[in-house]
Design brief:
The complex is a heterodimer of chains A (302) and B (270). Chain A is 75% helix and 0% strand. With 302 residues, chain A is mainly α. The mean pLDDT of chain A is 89. By secondary structure, chain B is an alpha/beta fold. The chains are: A mainly alpha (302), B alpha/beta (270).
């Protein structure tokens, strides 16, 4: 068959296709490159840090005072702060997010769901600095009436508000997972004379385990990385404690506190930011891998 | 309508057997929104034995099946009118507890739908939610006997705690039957139970139905007229939301009164 296009036209088309493909490839790889670059900078600066501070000291020392005359670089207090505020957040978001998801997926009528779900998702549009002041100026005074002797800065208040912040993520993703459970399984359960609640709790929820777990892990990742709420409501004083009533700094709170000051470039305190950042990165990476594993382990074949 | 229906059995075609009516539908109409899916259905379903519903796609046979255990309640836009009387009680009455009703009526679906749980847990689900077993050993006994009656036990006895979803399609469907009979229902509704199965698995399910029909009232919706002829004693033909006629299976297939039934049976449409 004779081509309707001349050789020159065909060549032009081929070149144009090639250019567009390269442009798309660059767009796709740029995010990978940026991530790679960030990891490289983290590792590079951290390596310089670890030349002066042994990794063992970093992980086992119980005092974090990089700006003091006698600096100590133990990540433990910051890690504890992150851990406690995350656990408090999870204690709030897990039950509330899960029940909200169960209600939206299994009980709510379409009209109710169409109202509640976007409203819930609106919560995630609130700037975190607003949440921070909400925690400091609203939640903390209330908590102080319930918990006697609660200091103005404390992880409990920050954790509760982080929990409120991540409810939309947990609820929305869990609901997606539950709605993806085939109707046939619900029919089977109803057909056996199960109530709505029995069906929701004993059939739908177990069948959606992997998706719900992934929703939780995403919520945890958000809580671990949360900065403003903890910096405002939990204080910026590193404190080695597992008591949520006490004030404490988290890894992120330290980074934001120190990064605002004028630290000389290349100094050890400057590099400590990157070491802390690396720690945070490894933590969230571990969570992401864990969520990946969960999804693979509990993926249901319908 | 009489309280009795008559039919002949396949192995004794001239002998008419009388059975009490287990389920009686009176002027049943079903609407999905503005669309009427069933129009004034009146029919009696005999106790014990198999009754088949046949008819072309969209004729309302599955809709009617889902009226018998009020599964249409789970569809928000569905509206059912008329009376469906089971053992003298109108199940469309407000006072009827749907959960209790469904525990007396088992259902097997078109697509095998075992829960993503172990084989054991699949069968134990119903007895657990209804508190039928007082002890662990009683529960095990129910599970084993249900699997045996569903003809599945020998194939799965070594792996009761493996996932039910790992079985073959035919085994999954028999697991669903075991799950249904574990709650000791009186009626079993089957909605095209073999449409997703190969001929060998189909034959096994049909044998099983014959066995189960000695104890239970079975209602089967099927697309396959051969299957209806093989397994049922009575057949009802649905067309465009109407129940055109019902009667002994051999009469419906060999000597139908209505022209539409005749056309369908002889393959002129459908």
């Amino acid at each position: 068959m004779a081509s309707r296009l001349s050789a020159a036209q065909r060549r032009r088309i081929r070149i144009r296709e090639r250019i567009i493909e390269s442009a798309l490839f660059l767009a796709a790889t740029s995010s990978v490159l940026v991530t790679g670059g960030i990891v490289f900078v983290l590792l590079y600066e951290s390596a310089a840090f670890f030349e002066h501070v042994p990794v063992i000291t970093f992980l086992t020392d119980t005092v974090w005072t990089p700006l003091f005359a006698d600096p100590r670089y133990g990540i433990m207090p910051l890690l504890c702060g992150t851990l406690v505020s995350t656990l408090v957040a999870l204690a709030v978001a897990a039950p509330l997010g899960l029940t909200a998801a169960l209600y939206l997926s299994e009980f709510a009528g379409p009209r109710v769901r169409e109202f509640i779900k976007p409203t819930l998702e609106l919560l995630s549009g609130v700037p975190t600095v607003v949440y921070g002041f909400f925690a400091l100026l609203f939640v903390t005074p209330i908590l102080q009436k319930i918990v006697p002797g609660l200091p103005g800065f404390n992880m409990l208040s920050a954790g509760i508000v982080i929990g409120i912040m991540i409810i939309p993520y947990v609820a929305s993703l869990s609901e997606d997972a539950m709605r993806a459970v085939p109707q046939g399984l619900r029919d089977a359960s109803y057909g056996l004379g199960a109530t709505k609640l029995e069906t929701a709790v004993k059939v739908v929820l177990p069948a959606a385990t992997s998706g719900v777990a992934a929703a939780f892990v995403l919520g945890i990742s958000r809580a671990v990385g949360e900065t403003m709420i903890v910096a405002i409501a939990a204080g910026t004083q590193p404190n080695l404690t597992l008591d949520p009533r006490e004030p404490a700094a988290t890894i992120t709170a330290f980074i934001v506190q120190v990064a605002l000051g004028d630290l000389p470039h290349g100094s050890l305190p400057y590099q400590s930011i990157f070491a802390a950042g690396l720690m945070l990165f490894l933590l969230t990476l571990a969570f992401n891998i864990f969520s990946f594993w969960l999804r693979a382990r509990y993926r249901e074949v319908y | 309508m009489d309280a009795q229906v008559k039919f002949s059995l396949r192995d004794a075609p001239h002998e008419m057997i009388e059975r009490a009516v287990k389920v009686r539908a009176e002027n049943v109409n079903v609407f999905y929104g503005a669309k009427q899916a069933l129009k004034d259905v009146n029919v009696g379903i005999p106790e014990r034995g198999v009754m088949a519903f046949i008819g072309p796609s969209g004729c309302g046979k599955t809709t009617f099946l889902r009226c018998i255990n009020r599964m249409n309640d789970t569809i928000a836009i569905a509206k059912v009118t008329g009376r469906i009387v089971i053992d003298g009680e109108n199940i469309n009455d407000r006072k009827v507890d749907v959960v209790e009703l469904r525990s007396r009526i088992g259902m097997v679906f078109q697509k095998p739908n075992p829960f993503p749980k172990s084989i054991f847990e699949n069968v134990a689900y119903g007895p657990r939610i209804h508190g039928l077993a007082t002890s662990k050993s009683a529960l095990e006994e129910i599970v084993v006997s249900s699997l045996k009656r569903a003809g599945l036990f020998d194939e799965v006895k070594e792996r009761l705690h493996d996932a039910g979803t790992g079985l073959s399609g035919g085994q999954q469907q028999r697991l669903c039957i075991a799950r249904a009979i574990a709650v000791e229902p009186e009626i079993i509704l089957m909605d095209e139970p073999c449409s997703a199965l190969d001929p060998i698995a189909t034959a096994r399910i049909e044998e099983l139905m014959e066995e189960l029909a000695k104890i239970y009232t079975i209602v089967i919706v099927t697309h396959s007229m051969q299957q209806a002829a093989r397994v049922s004693q009575r057949t009802a033909f649905f067309h465009l939301g109407n129940l055109v006629e019902d009667g002994p299976t051999d009469v419906i297939f060999n000597n139908p009164k209505d022209k539409r039934t005749q056309d369908y049976i002889t393959g002129r449409f459908g």
